[in-house]
Write a structure and sequence with these properties.
- By secondary structure, the chain is α/β, with parallel strands linked by helices.
- The protein is built from nine helices and ten strands.
- It has a single domain, classed as 4-Layer Sandwich (Purple Acid Phosphatase, chain A, domain 2), CATH 3.60.21.
- About 30% of the residues lie in helices and about 20% in strands.
- Helix 2 packs parallel to helix 4.
- The relative contact order is 0.18.
């Protein structure tokens, strides 16, 4: 008998048809299977809670890290920025779902490390300042909702720096091989298939580039880009495991379902009875 560590991201369950696909396909193959959810379930807390509750009821353990959509707020909302993150984490913990604020679990001899690192606009041309790079992106009509739904309530660059320091302190105590999980990619090479490179301004930070090798990762699991792909850097597999929006997953999902690659199988462990 075996058990599998599966991974998904960017479920966007309020998009038409996405929740039905989650209900149909995000299921364990065996009773001991675990599931990684690498962010972007939804924007509102009740939907996040219902979805995590559904998944936790199916899998032996769910490991979850929020994405940028979980942080989205309107002026009329009661929680914004860090308070919204704390509220999402509290929901997950109440359900028994593991988060970046919990002890790291072990699966098949690997420490599974959920991270929450955000971005700092450092994936830009070296000659440009963050302000200039953002201005150039806006001139091309490239602006993420983050600038309207996160940035007004939180200094994202400062928060990113704090999260990087927090993560490094925790990673320093980890021994042996790891599975690194983050909503945003850790390596800039993940941007190679993105049509508009300016999207990188909101997609990661140069400070995580060496983490997969430094922290002995067997795999890096991420989402955010809605471009499902698997590539290798050194000895590390990087896998983008998103479902994405309907227009995207209508193209990307069928071949993955046919090959049993969504949910994405990260690790398989043979278990003796």
């Amino acid at each position: 008998m075996s058990r599998t560590l599966w991974a998904v991201s960017d479920l966007h369950v309020r998009a038409p048809g996405n929740l039905d696909l989650v209900r149909e396909h995000v299921r364990p193959a065996n009773a001991g299977d675990w599931l990684i959810v690498a962010g972007d379930i939804a924007e509102d807390l009740p939907t996040i809670e219902r979805t995590l509750g559904l998944l936790q009821s199916r899998f032996a353990q769910v490991i979850y890290t929020p994405g940028n959509h979980e942080l989205y707020s309107r002026t009329s909302d009661t929680t914004h920025g860090r308070a919204k993150y704390d509220a999402v984490i509290a929901i997950a913990q109440r359900l028994g779902v593991l988060t970046p604020e919990d002890p790291f679990p072990m699966f098949a001899g690997h420490t599974v490390v959920p991270l929450f690192t955000l971005y700092d606009h450092s994936w830009r041309a070296p000659s440009m300042t963050p302000t200039a790079a953002l201005a150039a992106a806006r001139e091309k009509g490239i602006v993420l909702m983050d600038d309207l739904a996160i940035a007004p309530y939180e200094d994202v660059i400062l928060w990113c720096r704090e999260r990087l320091r927090y993560s490094v302190r925790r990673l320093a105590s980890v021994k042996g091989p790891t599975i690194l999980v983050n909503h945003w990619p850790l390596a800039r090479e993940a941007m190679s298939n993105v049509r508009h490179r300016e999207i990188g301004l909101w997609s990661g930070t140069r400070h995580t580039q060496e983490w997969p090798e430094r922290y002995r990762a067997r795999a890096v699991i991420y989402g955010h880009l809605h471009i499902p792909v698997e590539f290798s850097l050194g000895n590390v597999t990087h896998a983008e495991v998103s479902l994405g929006y309907p227009r995207e997953r209508k193209v990307s999902l069928p071949p993955r379902l046919e090959k049993n690659l969504w949910p994405y199988p990260v690790l398989v462990e043979e278990v003796t009875a």
